[in-house]
Description:
The protein has helices spanning 3-17, 97-102, 127-143, 157-168, 188-198, 212-228, 245-248, 252-259, 379-384, and strands at residues 42-49, 55-62, 74-78, 110-114, 150-155, 175-179, 203-209, 233-240, 272-273, 283-286, 292-293, 299-300, 309-313, 320-327, 334-341, 348-354, 364-367, 372-376, 391-398, 401-406, 409-415, 423-430, 439-447. The protein is an alpha+beta fold. The protein is elongated and about 75 Å long.
Amino acid sequence: MNPKCRVFLFVVGMVAVNMGAWHLVSPYHRTASKTDSAILDGLQCKSMVDANGTVHSYITFTPFRLQNDVPPAVILYLNGFGENGDDGLMQIFENFGQPVWEMKRRFPFVVVAPQCPIGETWNPDRPPIQQALKILDHVCAATNADSDRVFLVGVSSGAGSVWSIATHFPDRFAGIVPISSARPSGDTQETASAIAHSGIPVWAGFNRRDKEEFTEFNREMKSALLHAGSSPHYFEYNARGHDCWSRTFRSPALYHWLLGQSRRTQVSEPFRLIDVNNVAESFESAAGANWSAQSDGILRSPVSLETDGFLLSREPVRDFEIHAEFLTAPDAKPGVVLQLIDDDSKGQTNWTLTMCGSEAGGSDLSIDTPREWIADIDPLAQRSISDTEWNDVRLSADGETLRVEVNGWSALQVSDKRLAVGMKRFGLFQAKASATPTEWRWIRVRTSTDARRIDRGTKEQD
Length: 462
């Protein structure tokens, strides 16, 4: 079927489902104007005329319940090579458009989706991205958008350009989401270093059984980012084919994470990546538990029916962050731990967050001595824990606040005055009675002496 026919049927079908929810304005029946000034709710086809008189078609989505006093966040979406054209519709037909439509009544972002012309790319030195940024500025102004919460999202070749654009405009975006990324132009190590230095948060994903050219690049970029000091959410799905965007763009965790990002709260200081073959330099094993380094940078936890196995940081700190990936079994009980050390250094108390597998019960935060239950983790975070794919866990302590994130979900946040007293150690553990060891990788840490937040409005502050 002709692509334009498919687009026409898709649009007609959507309008029939919900008349009035999709405000369709054809880009081919316009009076001469520099821009479309009206911003309506829902999905719209629009156009902008450049100084040479060329019409550039694009699509916008505006939330149905925009609050006048709350500037919305914005997503600039870049299509892949297969959706290049001039019809003004194909750019979101088979990827981002469908999930947005499914969530239309509760989707909180303004979306700007220009279309890359045939024979062109989104590379930062090419005209299409310059035009796209002009369209983005126009829509942001028309919707009174939050300039500190503008995100760059792309798939395939569009995702490859996301990396390059982020290095050219490091102060423009609050986060980037390259999905099933093709290899961009430029050196991978240099790109990763620039992104890590800028502090731009990253959420990326690809399929393990995609073509080798895609899996090879994404694994290479992930490693380069981590070694450069970035801490990306980088998911490798156990699936075949190029399409991991259908799963990614339907994940509420992604949008939950995006809404938590802002340019004003980005941190510029790098994470320190732990070499699992020399883990003893930074961590010590408590109670004689044997944490063993495996091939490919994997650390395996001990299994015991009598005692918990702890791996704790050697040097106490005031505040910290520890991020890691873990692969668990249905019957395993892995976790992360914060150990409070009294000012007199005579007493210590472990706050342990157990992240149970699917057959090992619920996950919760508790204190070991005296035994005290604190909180269960969020049910959506619990349900996201997989025993077939690597999971991402992030534990941070800042003053009186303890935060845990699992697979992009805010698993829990606890405020307790006890957390602000004395110094802390942190690390990993495996609960007793776990029948199967948990595997850990990409362990990275940042302590209170490292972190420096960037105030984008004025200047960098310690």
